[in-house]
Amino acid sequence: MPHWIEPHPTGIYVRPADAWIDPSQPAERALVTHGHADHARGGHGHVWATEETLAIMALRYGTASGTPVRYGEQVRMGGVDISYIPAGHVLGSAQILLEHAGERVVVTGDYKRRPDPTCKPFEPVPCDIFVTEATFGLPVFRHPDTGSEVDRLLAALHAHPDRCVLVGAYALGKAQRLICEVRARGHHDPIYIHGAMERMCALYQDFGIDLGELRPATGVPAKEMRGHLIVSPPSALNDRWSRRLPDPITAMASGWMRVRQRARQKNVELPLVISDHADWDELTDTIREVAPTETWITHGREEALLHWCMIHQIRARALELVGREDEDEG
């Protein structure tokens, strides 16, 4: 392990730069991969992130002090060359490439390999140490084609014109991606959104992501929403807010919908396996492609991916960072 980068339960410390990557506690200097709350938070002295991530952090956490870093731009900090590389997770998400003392370390944050119309695609970067997430780090998790899942959603909508389809989707990333995927399949009717999603959808649109016509779902007579798609946070699927909707077909867009028990527990009628994380094959293929000397594993199911690395004679270790869970379940 390089002497200049240190994994701690609260984040990864880059000693020569005196900076932390995705610290879960306030830090004087924070390098942030993306805006989800298990990677970003308020209270840092100064933040380096993409322009989109800084805007998301300002909206969600009131972050005021930050330096925007463009994709591919190199920032030098304490003798460490730091670059932000697209991660393909959500708007503004980045891998952080660290180069120091002849070594290259890539900290991915969260990432996926599937196309996403709302963010730049993941770019593999050869390195000595590859820090990968393992949210879906079990062989059972092999995500289906996104288009086929969206087709199932639209088929349910068209088959029940007197009802609506209520989709639970996380407010940062998943909701906007789902809306764009639906638009790409030719659905241009107004889409109703929960009030908790309005500001984030507006931010996406400010960055040039066309979401089509969106309408607030609050204060609208139920009959006006018949035959329409409604997008809400997962937590709103079964609360009082949803009871006023016109006989909703309840759906959820999440990689966890591969697990039928989770769908049943949440009373999900139409589980949609749409994930913003890499599945098992994408995790292992990415490690092969990047070809690191050593792989550090965090954020989820470390054991199975650790075992896979050992079988394939790749040195690996589990970091066990605190507070790293998929926000769809938060």
TrEMBL record:
Top-level enzyme category: hydrolase
Catalytic activity, EC: 3.1.-.-
Name the record gives this protein: Ligase-associated DNA damage response exonuclease
Keywords in alphabetical order: Exonuclease, Hydrolase, Ligase, Nuclease
Transmembrane segments: none
GO molecular function: exonuclease activity; ligase activity
